[in-house]
Amino acid sequence: MEIRLDTQPFAAIQADALVTYVFEKDGRVEGVVAELDQLTGGRLRELADSGELTGKSLEMTLVHYPAGLAAQRLLVVGAGKPEKFGTAELRKLAGASLRLLKTKSVKRLAFLARENDCTSAAAQAITEGLVIANFESDKYKTENKNNKEVEAATLVGWDEAGRASAEAGVARGRIVADSQNFTRDLVNEPSNRLTPSLLAERADAMARQAGLAVDILDEKRIEELKMGALLGVAQGSAEPPRLIVLTYTPPQAREGAPVIGLVGKAITFDTGGISIKPSEGMEKMKYDMAGGATMLGVMRALAQLKPAVKVVAVIPATENMPGGRAQKPGDVQIAMSGKSIEVINTDAEGRLVLADGLAYARKLGCTHLVDAATLTGAIVVALANVNVGVFGSQQDFTDRLLVSARAAGEKMWQMPVDDDYREMIKSTIADIQNVGSGKGGGAVTAAMFLKEFVEDTPWIHLDIAGTAWLDEAKPWAAKGASGVALRTLVDFVMNFDSAR
Ligand code: BES
Ligand code: ZN
Ligand code: ZN
User: What's the pTM?
Assistant: First the structure.
């Protein structure tokens, strides 16, 4: 989709559809966009009076051949209550408008931003909403394919004075949303088409194209590093593991400056291993590499946005299979850090591969760590499919991520990290065990396990098990991989003040 800015008056904009939005005030639609109403001969007022147009969030009112407009359709989207409106709502409603118009074979749309929204951040949010909405999860369909992609979008409402900042917003939005779609495409891939080595190849190709340094560690090098936790998971599979390392170095790199480590869980398929999962819904476990795919997408965006801080992504990739050589409940593995782990449940494999991933990121010099993982079913119990679970070892560091989440329009909720939970992962025969004893708190004990491998490095863990996959489409996004956390992490790195 081509996206450009046009500073002409909106009435003159040629398009298959012009989109704008109205607010709901005191249960009634606001004084209906006066200029539009006038141009269309009071059409909007009539619709409002009849009760069809109310301004309720994501309400869609489509007017055909509107008088006074060069565009062939006018789509008025409900923006909800003005006091609840921000860039997050703008992103969603832009996306929802595109997905509605797509079903009507619209190829060229124009999006009219209201006066208050003619900012750079709004241009970015609208662009992101449109590009994310244009993505479909139907790569492998040969029939009934949704080939109704919108081909061009024009942003309207800005004047010449605002052009440069709006265009910068569009450019940023493009980079971020294309990267989010890159992640979604990887997450949607079935596991036979995205084994650990194929994921590594995709990462390698992306890194080369983006100008990132890349190092793919094969089984031999993983063994040399004594990554017993990662190898323990991998040994049940016929597919060899990979450890994917991508590095972004800023143009003004300084000796001794902070280095952010992004560690992503990439289980290309999680059967549970010997502690095998029930067959119902197991097909979804192809998305157990979403954390790793998210970090790849983040790196893709950063390569173009060029933050001032160095960033290293570390992605342990393996299948979790119950093969003849698979690890068994009760086995003890020695992680790269030297800690011994009793594997009580082979289905708690994410924390095992992350243990070595986090330790390796520290070994590579990372001073700050963030991991993302589809880690626990327990986070789905706690937060459903709504919020990402956020765990952190230092509140000021965690707070900065939560600020980015709000800016990026992604819901995240902080969960506790507390030594009282540490008791629950003590093992009888090893240093720690990979599941909590006692009842409940499964998402927290998983986080406590990871914490054992970050030592005193500031660290944030994002449990995206409930949010990385959409079982149903949203008005603004296709079903399947969501690409959650990518926008937050990009914003977080871009605003990481290396002086702090
Ligand atoms: N990949 C799963 C977690 C998961 C669950 C992701 C649901 C997406 C949706 C993880 O490896 C797992 O199996 N965790 C176990 C841990 C348990 C054995 C302590 C779980 O949450 O059930
Ligand atoms: Zn598992
Ligand atoms: Zn898993």
Answer: 0.97
